[in-house]
Amino acid sequence: MVDNEGIWSRGGSNVEELPDPFAPLGPRPGAPSDIPGLEEKPRRRRWWPMVLYAVSGVFFLILIWLIVTAPLSRALEPLEDPAILLLSEEGQPIARRGAVKEAPVDVTTLNSVTPAAFVAIEDRRFYRHWGVDPRGIGRAMVANVQAGGVRQGGSTITQQLAKTSFLSSDRSLKRKAQEVIIAFWLEAWLTKDEILSRYLSSVYFGDGVYGLRAASKHYFGRSPENLSLAQSAMLAGVVQAPSRLAPTKNLKLAQARSKLVLKAMADTGAVSPSRAKAATPARPIYRSSKIPTGTYFADWVSPSARDAYEADFGEVRVPTTLDADLQRLAVRAVSRAGVGDAQVALVAMRPDGRVVAMVGGKSYKDSPFNRATQARRQPGSAFKLFVYLAALRAGWTPDSKIDDRPITIDGWTPSNNDGIYRGEITLREAFARSSNAATVRLSENVGRVNVMRAARELGITTALPNSPSLALGTAGVSLLELTSAYAAVASGRYPIRARGLLEEEGAGRLAGLLQSGGRMDSRRDWAPMLDLLYAAANNGTGKRAALAVPTFGKTGTSQDNRDALFVGFAGDLVVGVWVGRDDDRPLGRNVSGGTTPAQVWRNFMVSALAVDGRAGPRLPAEFRIPEKARPERKKESPLPKEWTEGAEPLRQVLKELEKLFE
Question: Which single residue of 67, 99, 235, 577 has CA 20 to 30 Å from 456?
Fold first, then answer.
């Protein structure tokens, strides 16, 4: 150290003037460069982290989408809309609906030729590709160009599994891209045997059959583990076009296709050429099943059945309320109605709402439209039930008097069908004769709001117009709903819900206790209403329906005789009959509720009550069945007629003597 250097100097320079050893090499921000021409270069932004984050985000979203959209167990689950076998109350099959899928198969337990047949014809490079086969796509394109149309598909078995189990059948680039992504997903998480097992367990084989187990049972009556070479080849050939190649529909075409499968198996080495050539074409078993797939009752009850029972493999057996014997009688009564080109509908139920017979038209094959449940037609005078019920609740009785004279409201004057006005009459006579003038006058007296309230409480749900014509049934209702309302009167409680499924006894009682509604007052409402319905069915417009047992009911005829109805009950049955035309043309003046519908009703009930043999609900103690007037019978001598011949003069003498002693 030189003499003049101190602790605050270095090399003769003050340390404060020396450069900072920790300063950056470049110039300070904002400081001019000391070197002429040297400018600071902008720093490059690093984009690769953002790209990495974006790719990771997309991958994460795809992963979430795959987990939600393509759960690996989807193909092993039963169909969401499985086959159901509807059973009558007696346990007889009455209808079969939906497709069948049986339990999954495991390719490791199958005959080796069975999975080999599917691989050979559908995806011969299945065990060598990773979900998508570019070579297969190219081969299919060449074959299709040479054939001048689509003859081969380039989709692998993995792609077909993705399409059938997770995607729709739409043909679009978006769906194809989704199919490829899901195929990669399946290949990443499942083994080849697991993919093939899922494919065979879920693919469609025609005839409403899904999966190899169901197809084996359906076509050949055996388990998939016991399929022969020829049977395996036939089933493998069906999956290309199930509707066209199903052996039950086109056996020759199915057998021709199975030969192509056998040739493909020989080409891939799955079997020897000699064995493939020697295989005799398979033939399916034919089963003569008379169980229909659709009926009016089945169409109506199926949605409730699917909601009530969980999905399962095979057929779900669903017991219903239908009585097979009563259904046959209902079909017979409708077929013998003799209404020409008009239609007839009939629904029969128990007083608690269990539907035991339903006919929605003359022929389900010609027209599956259910006129008992789907049609909304004017009930005509059958709607008067609610008018008179409202009057009874307001204090009127069957013996109360009402004017049967013309009435005009807001320029509208209802007329009686027979054109006769009887002056002051009882409610019983007005209801029995179905007087329109008296009914409208009664409705206005008790209030339309109360009439509508009575209809709602008894289960009518359709729109009701607040107009004077409401009393005459101008609002459209279904026959099922109207019959349910009459069932409420038969049982004395309301509302009655029409149902087609059997309920367990305990569940039925609990449902009855929890059901909102009420019971009819036996003295004020129930007994008087039965009085009116009895008068209408036995002495009034519905007397053609009268039976040897107590009969209750009401006729209905809509404007211009477009609809004719009779709804009533006897024994343990409540039955509604409708006659009309689908195009709403008039039936003619000769058809009314008291003619054809009443006769159809009676024809059904005579046989139905004999077969059914059940007693109806106990009637209220306040109701007494009126005794019918009996014709006076002339007293006759118990002696043979020839013994008394010539004794007439003596009888005259005796009569004269009796007069003398009186």
Answer: 577
Q: Among 456, 434, 436, which Cα is nearest to 444's?
A: 436
Domains in the chain, CATH or no CATH each:
82-98+293-320 (no CATH), 99-278 (1.10.3810.10), 333-612 (3.40.710.10)
Angle between helices 384-393 and 448-457 (to 10 degrees): 110
Q: What are phi and psi of 570, to 5 degrees?
A: -160, 150
For residue 513, give both structure tokens: 């206790």
Q: Nearest Cα to 268, choosing from 111, 141, 112?
A: 112
Q: What is the pLDDT of residues 506-551, one digit of tens each?
A: 444 445 544 567 999 999 999 999 999 999 999 999 999 999 999 9
Q: Is the pLDDT of residue 224 over 60?
A: yes
Neighbour-count burial of 484, counting CB atoms closer than 10 A to its CB (0-12 exposed, 13-18 middle, 19+ buried): buried
| Residue 395 DSSP one-character state | T
Q: Which amino acid is at 264?
A: A
Tell me the per-residue pLDDT of 7-37, one tens digit each, with 9 for 90 and over: 656 666 665 666 666 555 555 555 454 545 5
Q: Which residues contact 176 (CB under 8 A, 6 or more apart)?
A: none
Place of tokens 């008097």: 401
Cα separation, 473 vs 347, in Å, equals 19
pTM: predicted TM-score of the whole model, two decimal places: 0.77
3-state helix, strand, coil in the chain (%, to 5): 45, 10, 45
Work out the widest C-alpha separation in the chain, in whole angstroms.
191
